[in-house]
Amino acid sequence: MLSCIRPFVLAAGLLAAGLAQAQSDVQPAVQSKVFAAASTRGELVVGVPYLAPPPVAGAKIRTQEGLDAAITERLGASLKLPVRLVQVPARDAARALAAGDVDLVLADNADGQPQTVAVQATGYAARPKAVIRSDTRLRKPADVQGRSVCMAEAATQAQALAQSWGATVKTYRVPSDALVAVREGECDIGLVDDAVWEPLMRFPEWKKFSSTLAADGARHERVWLVPARDEASRAWLGQEMRAWDRAGAWKAMTTKWARDVAFDVYLDQEVPDCHG
């Protein structure tokens, strides 16, 4: 009996080894299909809704609005590719993808995309949230009519929301400029994403600016747009976004953004704010 079993076990082992070898041979081929043009180019080109102009010579380097830069840099690191950003509004995504101008687009919505464009959720959703001095009586959107509301010029969702309140909208190059204006009394209210509001308010110097308004406006999720024909890249993106969620990537990125912006504000305020 044992003499019969041994050849069978040996054959099974050889078969398993052969399958493992076949899988190891196939895996690189599958991986190579993920963003193949970017791999060939040696650079991942990502479209984003807004791309801040480069700072002029001598200008202060400050943290940009939102997480777009952090998200795209993390994606590039996963692919082991450097990233180049180009400005591509969602309405132009299909054309840019079809022309090969970009490998994928990070958009603020997926509305109106044709069937040639596939949509992959990121898992990051936010809406504007107010930053207000705690000693004011502003508590609901109706209180804001005629007041000054400030945000970064890239924060288009925040601008539209403030306009719906009947507020006077003021935009600044970067979020720290808008928040300095709030701290120094030039603006009644600042607006940032609600996802970064809480980590920002954990800093002691923001305690007296930790009042806010009742939640208003819809939460929007950032989405990836990729060519629908590129099924391998879309499948990989889905796996990557799930891995980010399990790893707590969004919390890490929002916390870092809040810390960086708080430091920007600290650098910009050479003296304590004028309200004491």
Give an account of the 3D structure.
Residues 1-22 form the signal peptide. InterPro entries: Solute-binding_3/MltF_N. This is Solute-binding protein family 3/N-terminal domain-containing protein. There is one protein chain. This protein is an alpha/beta fold. The chain has helices spanning 2-32, 36-41, 68-79, 93-99, 156-164, 175-183, 194-201, 231-247, 249-268, and strands at residues 44-48, 83-87, 104-107, 117-126, 128-131, 148-152, 168-172, 189-193, 220-227. Strands 2-1-3-9-4 form a 5-stranded mixed sheet. It has a 4-stranded mixed sheet with strand order 5-8-6-7, with helices on both faces. Helix 3 links the parallel strand 1 (44-48) and strand 2 (83-87). Helix 6 crosses helix 9 (249-268) and helix 7 packs across helix 9. The N and C termini lie far apart (91 Å).
